[in-house]
Structure formats: structure tokens, C-alpha cells
TrEMBL record:
UniProt keyword Membrane, yes or no: yes
GO molecular function list: cholestenol delta-isomerase activity
Gene this protein is translated from: EBPL
GO BP annotations listed: sterol metabolic process
Protein name: Emopamil-binding protein-like
Transmembrane portions of the chain: 55-78, 85-104, 119-142
Amino acid sequence: MNCCESLFSFSSLQEGPFVYLSFVGNVADSEGLIASLWKEYGKADARWLYFDPTIVSLEILTVVLDGSLALVLIYAIVKEKYYRHFIQITLCVCELYGGWMTFFPDWLMGSPNLNTDSWLYFGVYLVFFNSVWVLIPGLLLWQSWVELKKMFYKGTSSGKKFQ
């Protein structure tokens, strides 16, 4: 397993407490290390400070579905299971879709919740850190594409038809 795959698992460990804090109150009024990390990110995107139903809904899916898929993916990589790339592609598509649904609706409304005036909050927090969640799934999708292509040509070159 490489660092790219382990980031998906780390994401669920970080976003699980966010979901919990959102249901027992809100991040803005919470204490603790994880709450302080989310408070800092909330300076760039205010939806993370208070209960935003769209964000919390997406994060529930991220924690439950993506977290489960990440664990299955880790197992599939370690045990070299045949379904590894199916899980990897599914997880990457989920992550890209989640990113799209997190930001695109806000962009359509003129970014009322995003701090686009500050170079730090816009450039570093919103663009740089969130682009990691586009770059890594993109690289992993490319990796799966290359591996599936190799398997296809290996199957067809031995006289077998790969279907």
C-alpha cells in the first residue's frame, strides 16, 4: 500500500469526528484538537463551522461508504485481490463526486461561504489542500487504467478473450 491509498483511510478518521461534532452541537462551539482543526478550516469555508445539511450529508457518506471502501481497498492491496482496481476506481469516483458536490453548488451561488479574499484561506486551504483530493484520485484512476489495460492485453495475447 502506498501513501495515496492510506490518505483515503486518514480522511475518514478526520471526518468522522466532524460528523459527530455536527450532530452533538457544532464545530464552532466545540473544544479539542480535531475541533480546532475544523475551526481553522472553517475560516476558509464557513459551512464547516455550523450544521450545513449538504456538507454533513456528504461527510456521512464519506465516513461510512468511503471509509469502508478504503478498508476493503487496503485489504485488497495487501492480499493482492482481483477486485482491487474495481474498489479503487469506485472510491476515487466517490471522492471526486464528493468534492464536486461540496464546492460546485457554492460556486454557483457566488461562493458566499468561501473566504476568497484571503490568499491563505483561498489559495492554501481551499485550492491547494482540496486539490490534493482531486490529484490523488486522478493518479489512482490512471494507475487502475494502466493496470487494467495491461491485464486486457495480457489476456488477449495468450489467445484468451478477456471479458
